[in-house]
Design brief:
Helices cover 57% and strands 9% of the residues. By secondary structure, the protein is an alpha+beta fold. The chain has two domains: 113 residues, no CATH class; 191 residues, Homing endonucleases (Endonuclease I-creI, Roll), CATH 3.10.28.10. The strands form two sheets. A four-stranded antiparallel sheet has the order 4-5-7-6. A three-stranded antiparallel sheet has the order 1-2-3. Strand 4 and strand 5 form a beta hairpin. The two termini are 30 Å apart. The structure holds zinc ion. The site of zinc ion has 7 residues, from helix 3 and helix 6.
Length: 343
């Protein structure tokens, strides 16, 4: 912010500038975002909420298990492997597989294992064959995975499928940071076909590939809210909504503060100019020639360099209007300009 060119600043001006700097700093500190209580992970909280949904209808449970398998670590005719560090999913997985396929994992984490990544594995080919058959796969042929849409005819099953995909291969970013929800699979066709499932649910994902994986993702807060609700996580959806409101509010406060700072600069520049003008009039001896009203205003300004026009108007005795006071100050500046032109 360029101050007006001032030669030989006097004490008043210095005080004024230091007050201005103080105010400016004060305004700038208002700019900072409030500190947040950071949860361990928004994605993990969301998965926990999703896992609270009771394992219900057979059709939806099958669809959820399908989503998990197509988005998990390994799903071949030789091995199935789901790795997760989400405690709620660790609880849900064995129950879901028991209900849908009436079978258990060949390898699963012990109850007393420390926190961290846990693996659920099936390597019994008979079990794997049973699972493949329940999705309508021909177990004699080994091929690239495709989504069997026949399993996902109803909307309830489509939503459950997406929930499963999210639980195994999905993530959502803390909405306080940014808006991002993704579903990642290593099956090319599955990513393409999940896109269609999402479209049928009313969502249009963006697609990308990353390190040999395929990703459907969302960047719009509204879409993320709706998808979380569809999957069965209304609390997470609410958190996204709240973060959006908070962010919008902060932006509007920042706009206000910036605008106030600009006004403040204008005000301070004007005050500096007025104080300098009065000092000049005093130095040249013409201060005494001013009218009583102008003298009073000049004295008020000198003793209150940081006051606004409205404040100075109210301090005047008798009080005057803002425009009257403004007029007097302008006159003082004009008179001092005329003086300095002559010299
Ligand atoms: Zn269903």
């Amino acid at each position: 912010m360029p101050h007006p060119k001032v030669t030989g600043r006097n004490v008043h001006t210095e005080i004024l500038i230091s007050r201005y700097k103080f105010m400016r700093n004060f305004v700038n500190t208002q700019d900072r975002a409030p500190k947040r209580v950071i949860t361990i992970s928004f994605a993990s909280d969301t998965k926990q909420e999703l896992c609270k949904i009771s394992i219900g209808k057979k059709c939806c449970s099958l669809a959820e298990a399908y989503g998990i398998l197509l988005y998990c670590n390994t799903f071949t005719d030789k091995e199935i492997k789901v790795v997760t560090e989400n405690k709620a999913l660790v609880q849900r997985l064995p129950k879901l597989f028991e209900k849908v396929f009436t079978l258990s994992f060949d390898q699963k984490p012990e109850d007393n294992e420390p926190e961290g990544k846990k693996a659920f594995v099936i390597f019994d080919t008979k079990k794997i064959a049973k699972i493949l058959q329940s999705f309508g796969y021909d177990t004699k042929k080994v091929y690239a995975h495709h989504v069997n849409f026949a399993i996902l005819e109803d909307d309830c099953c489509k939503a459950s499928f997406i929930r499963g995909a999210f639980l195994a291969g999905g993530s959502v970013t803390d909405p306080a940071k940014r808006y991002h929800l993704e579903l990642v699979t290593d099956h090319y066709n599955v990513n393409k076909e999940t896109y269609s499932v999402l479209v049928e649910l009313g969502f249009e994902a963006k697609n990308a590939s990353r390190n040999g994986n395929y990703m459907a993702y969302f960047k719009q807060s509204e879409a993320i809210e709706d998808l979380l609700t569809t999957m069965g996580a209304p609390l997470a959806a609410m958190a996204v909504m709240n973060a959006k409101v908070e962010k919008d509010m902060r932006n509007s406060i920042n706009r206000r503060v910036n605008c106030d700072t600009a006004n403040l600069e204008k005000m301070v520049n004007a005050s500096i100019e007025q104080v300098e003008a009065i000092r000049k009039l005093e130095a040249s001896g013409s201060f005494e020639n001013l009218t009583e009203k102008l003298k009073e205003t000049a004295r008020l300004r000198l003793s209150n360099p940081e006051a606004s026009i409205a404040e100075l108007a109210a301090m005047s005795d008798p009080p005057v209007t803002k425009s009257c006071l403004n007029h007097r100050l302008r006159k003082i500046v004009k008179l001092s300009d005329r003086k300095s032109d002559k010299t």
